[in-house]
Amino acid sequence: AQHTSGLPNATLAELLTSTDASGATGSGGSYPFGPYLGDLPSNPFTESKVITVITNHPAESGDVTAAGGWLYNATTGGIWLDDATLYSK
């Protein structure tokens, strides 16, 4: 609601810093929203924080990478574990 129904970009930076209504990051009075998280959580199975942008929703086996962090669809906002056995959970 604070970002005119927009989803975070591929880095999820809007969750980690102050933003304005458009989602632009910055500091000071012109950026009154957030931060919402102090840091991105690690994937508990791989201990990785790497974000891989995907276009499928839900995630598919071909989306899984060796990075092992998170699979994120910036169009739908869906987030999945980047893990070959758990991506569909």
Question: What is the compact description of this entry?
Answer:
With 89 residues, this protein is largely without helices or strands.
Write a structural description.
By secondary structure, this protein is low in regular secondary structure. 0% of the residues lie in helices and 10% in strands. Strand 2 and strand 3 form a beta hairpin. The two termini are 27 Å apart. The mean pLDDT is 93.
H and E string:
EEE
Major beta-sheet overview: 3 strands, mixed
How many helical elements? 0
Mean pLDDT: 93
Poorly predicted parts: none
What is the total tally of β strands?
3
How helix-rich are the residues, as a percent range? under 10%
Largest sheet, order of strands side by side?
Answer: 1-2-3
Strand content is: 5-15%
Rounded to the nearest angstrom, the radius of gyration is 14 Å
Derived from helix and strand composition plus strand pairing, the structural class reads little secondary structure
Determine the N-to-C terminus distance: 27 Å
Please tell me what the overall shape is.
elongated
